[in-house]
Amino acid sequence: MAGSIADGQRRGRRRGELTVGTIARLAGVSKPTVSKVLNGRAGVASDTRQRVEALLREHGYRRPDAIAPAALLEVVFYGLERHMAVEIMRGIEPVAREHELAVAFTEVVEPTPPGRSWAEQLLARHPLGVVAVHSAFTPEQHALLAASAIPLVALDPSGEPLHAIPSVGATNWSGGIAVARHLLDLGHRRIGVVGGPPDSLGARARLEGCRAALDAAGVRLDDRLVRTGEFTFEHGRDLGRELLERPDRPTAVLCGNDLQALGVYAAAWRLGLRVPHDLSVVGFDDIDNTRWCCPPMTTVRQPLAEMGATAARMLITLAGGGVLDQPRVELATALVVRESTAPPA
Amino acid sequence: MAGSIADGQRRGRRRGELTVGTIARLAGVSKPTVSKVLNGRAGVASDTRQRVEALLREHGYRRPDAIAPAALLEVVFYGLERHMAVEIMRGIEPVAREHELAVAFTEVVEPTPPGRSWAEQLLARHPLGVVAVHSAFTPEQHALLAASAIPLVALDPSGEPLHAIPSVGATNWSGGIAVARHLLDLGHRRIGVVGGPPDSLGARARLEGCRAALDAAGVRLDDRLVRTGEFTFEHGRDLGRELLERPDRPTAVLCGNDLQALGVYAAAWRLGLRVPHDLSVVGFDDIDNTRWCCPPMTTVRQPLAEMGATAARMLITLAGGGVLDQPRVELATALVVRESTAPPA
What we know:
homodimer; alpha/beta; 434 Repressor (Amino-terminal Domain); Rossmann fold; 3 domains; six-stranded parallel beta sheet; four-stranded parallel beta sheet; 12 helices; 12 strands; LacI family transcriptional regulator (chains A, B); LacI/GalR-like_sensor (chains A, B); Lambda_DNA-bd_dom_sf (chains A, B); DNA-binding transcription factor activity (chains A, B); transcription regulation (chains A, B)
């Protein structure tokens, strides 16, 4: 299997004999402009950069001095998703091992520590590919990845579809629908929402899926019972308290993720409300903690390990010079009914 | 800083000019025996192997054909400790990045998947060093590590002091004492224990520290209230239920780790007992979950990230040809008082 990757790389280099001049002609720009994009330098308009990058990718361009890739698959995490990191790593790692690749782990921290940045160090290692978990590369870094022909796949548990690169996500919208239907079936009509950040398209998809299912059942989501905030325990707790202290408090609260739902558990506990007797609570993600809380949590499962494995397989295909069947893969979410939901009292 | 490591490696190679013959003479064995140890082959008595390995380490022997190490620090996890893995990784990673090293992640899974084993693959990558988190290398693998002059440091959150290699742990014994004194101060006298596995020396240290503090206060730990099991939520729940269903149930339960304590929370919840009003519960480790449960958990903090950083620094010292101040480092544990402990009702 390692052999097939090496073969692919050789194919990649052959295709890489395409010159800077050809790319410049195809893009309708000057050769120095293509060089600027290749070297990640500033001074190129954003749409020009994107056009050049797309051509570099399309033609599998590799710099003549490109170094053979290390047998290394890099995984870059953005701090926010750390409670999911192990599950994702354990999906990626067996696939990498099968192909005799090491898996390197980077966590992006802010502010950036002194010295060469994580991205510069990563690029200098010439990995076979990079899985970016909800993490942001700058346009310059994207250009360097493209120029080194290092494939990049976005793994995005919060559902933000990233730019023009291949990505793996889960069906957030249908997850929202499944949860809303479950609460409707139990008889809930006054439903509150503690949603994820409004600038997260994944959080929006969950919320809007829920709203659509309620609409279809003739139940209007009351905007006064909808709150949004960060995907954290603390935001869940504080927003949950706001909802639960209202005289017309909801009989059920849908949350943007499991951490927010644990926060709503804590808010209910402080107010002396019992889950599910006084309040049903539903999470999203199905992290380990959903089985360790009291009561065990009803939630929507995101198949994080499978998402990691899928991203790794996509990278290995790309690194081998192959073409992906589809640039965006969404794995199915599934409602997991435990004990935090019951008919309203 | 990367320069200093490279320099150290050169020093290592110079010292490595020591021959197999010299090692054989020093060990009082034949040259073929030294070769067997170097190549990880069988047919060498265990004490002979240990003596030869010690000499190889002591003299920084490297095989003439040894490959220059990759700028890679490997971290190997044994499945059990996965809820701690992210915290450990985030301690190791900044130290590695400062030295421009990638951090590779391996999780040991059983049964071993087909193909080259994780250990063979890891050794073939020639990393600068290996942090083994509660994971077991066979004598053959140890020999290969020694022969490749790949330094190994054990990071052991469950406190088992591993063989003759450098290691990092935490002060489990004093943690046990701190917890017991806290419960005594609150007025508890009928104290139950849900401890970790009896074959884990770290679990034993926690339990015996607790027993010593109780003895010193003239309070005898009632053996009928002591249970031991795996470091899991499920074992904590089942053993906790055994204790809580007794007519003379304890007023407080000390647990071997936080997952077991979350299990005791669940057992109490099923029986309609309130923490801390009807029962005090204390964990050990201070994983994230201790802040997300109701009530927030009193526990003993193990500084996992600092332990990871320490292990990484030890490896970098060893890889640079340096000598460790001490082969075993124990970082301090600290009692963290939250809301799961109160005076007995």
